[in-house]
Amino acid sequence: MKRSLQFGLAASLAALGYSSAIAQDRSDEGIGTSPLIGKLETCTAIENDAERLACFDREVGTLVGASNKGDVKVVDSEQISEARKKLYGYSLPDAGIFEAATEEEREENKRLVSTITRVRKVGSKEWHFWIEEGNAKWRIKNNSIRARAPEVGQSVEFKPATMGTYWIRIDGRKGVRGNRIG
Question: By three-state DSSP, how is residue 96 classified?
């Protein structure tokens, strides 16, 4: 039991070290880290084992308490990626929490591939459809006679166009402009 606690503490410290490095790298951009993490980091500088453990116990208790109250939320990169997909198509303020770390991530975030889960025709040339990510509702106004109606189960790809619109390719066909409406 004692050994697994030590391993868990070591793993937590490694994760904190990693997250603090990210926070320090991004501090120039106005993206900070919680003061609770900073207090935890100060524990690593304590040389005396008993004092360091007491510091970790105190600060981890504070962090867990804040998390249980809802004051602090700890998320991993996979959760952030899922949230990005659910919010794709919305204009969001730059709060720094969805900031991509690398150029590759930024490019990946510009495009979304999903599956159509529901379709509804509105008027003579307008279609509304929903996708898996966040049950997002999209609209296309189709003026092309050759274009076919979207169908449930088809793959759909989105890429930013201009003025808040997106290029929407359904099942690999020619792209049409559309926008997110819900």
Answer: coil
DSSP state of 134: G
Query: Alpha-carbon distance 146 to 56, whole Å?
Result: 65
Say yes or no: 82 and 169 in one domain: yes
Do 112 and 171 reside in the same domain of the chain? yes
* Same domain flag for 106 and 65: no
- Over residues 145-158, the mean pLDDT reads 84
Place of tokens 């979304």: 112
Count of domains for the chain: 2
d(CA 101, CA 91): 19
Residue 174 confidence (pLDDT) above 60: yes
Domain that holds residue 26: 2-69
d(CA 135, CA 70): 26
Report, as an integer, the average pLDDT of 67-83.
82
Statement: residue 5 has pLDDT above 80: no
